[in-house]
Amino acid sequence: MNKSILVLGTRGIPNVAGGVESHCQALYPLLVEKYNLDITVTARKPYVPYTKTVYEGVKLVALPAVKNKALEAPLHSLLAAFYAIKTGADIVHIHAIGPGLVTPLLRLFGKKVVFTHHSQNYDHQKWGKLAKFILRLGEKCAMKYASEVIVISDFMQKLMSEKYGRDDTHLIFNGVNKPQLPDQQIIKQYLDRYDLAPRDYVVAVGRFSQEKGLDVLLEAYKRSGIKKKLVLVGDSDQPTAYSDKLKATALATSGVVLTGFLSGEALNSIFSQADTFVLPSFSEGLPIALLEAMSFSLPVVVSDIPANKAVHLADKCYFACGDSQALATLLTTAVNQPLVCYAEYLKKYDWNLIAQQTYDVFLAAENNNG
């Protein structure tokens, strides 16, 4: 395949917080390595320190972006679409439904478009009416006009068939790397930094926004009375009333530790020594943080939203979404349990398999005359 591919819809790589960003950082270097593809990822200038650079064979270009909750993604995607047209990219790979708005424009200029549907973002509580309208319109444009569509869960595949009659979507899961365990001295440094002891804390990872449900977790933690600490890994991209209140509540609650965003050996160190992982989200696609926790064999506790149920964990791992008392009760029985081996289960979330499946979709797009 001798085609140039441009990627839009991500804040950028490498080491930019977010599920789509983690997905792109893992996927595209593999595609370059395995298939020698010409791939350019467009990033948003406020989130990255470069204008142009290369990361593990992937070309990176930062384009201007306005930091506005509702308009940041669609406006940057419009700029990236014009960049794709100007530079002559053959295939454009769009991530997420907000950027999906530019799909008709790209098709008008003869581009083949691969669209990956990560999440129904319009279900997130943080969005106002305008943003939800834009997100729904983006989903509609992408589903109607994309050459090929990738979905990351069987739940999403069924939903897109029901909503739009799009029965030709490709089911390709999110992936997880094999856990990179830092040496014991490095692990100890990070545990000491946050005054933690091995297997003596519960961990949650996510952006400090309403759909992640961390306020429900804080309330559940207080109700549970468990003696282990609660470590919240993450922050908000931009301060909001919700994130400010969440941090204030966390700081006022005994046993809660805030680390800010973590990645690499810092995140791996925290994951590797945790007792239990909790994901209390109201809305998800296929959460990479959950897969990462499972790669470290952690017992997990997750909300019973459809996207999380699509991971097909044991029933005892789920609690009623938004119910802090149900989560508190589950926490008391989830802690102090043995580690769990998910090795067989995680085979379908292997990035090498996902890279191969994505390459096949690029070939399908190249040969798609629709």
Notes on the protein architecture:
There is one protein chain. A hairpin with a 2-residue loop joins strand 3 and strand 4. The chain is globular. It is built from 13 helices and 14 strands. The two termini are 19 Å apart. The mean pLDDT is 93. By secondary structure, the protein is of the alpha/beta class. It has 2 domains: 189 residues, Rossmann fold (3-Layer(aba) Sandwich); 164 residues, Rossmann fold (3-Layer(aba) Sandwich). Helix 1 crosses helix 13, helix 6 packs across helix 9 and helix 7 crosses helix 12.
Structural class: alpha/beta
- Continuous helix count: 13
| Strand-residue proportion | 15-25%
CATH fold naming of the largest domain = Rossmann fold
Give the strand order of the largest sheet, numbering strands 1, 2, ... along the chain: 3-4-2-1-5-6-7-8
Mean pLDDT: 93
Shape: globular
Protein name: Phosphonate ABC transporter substrate-binding protein
Domain Glycosyltransferase subfamily 4-like N-terminal: 18-177
InterPro entries: Glyco_trans_4-like_N, Glycosyltransferase_grp1
GO molecular function, one term: glycosyltransferase activity
Short structural summary:
The chain has 370 residues and is of the alpha/beta class. Helices cover 40% and strands 17% of the residues. Helix 4 links the parallel strand 6 (112-117) and strand 7.
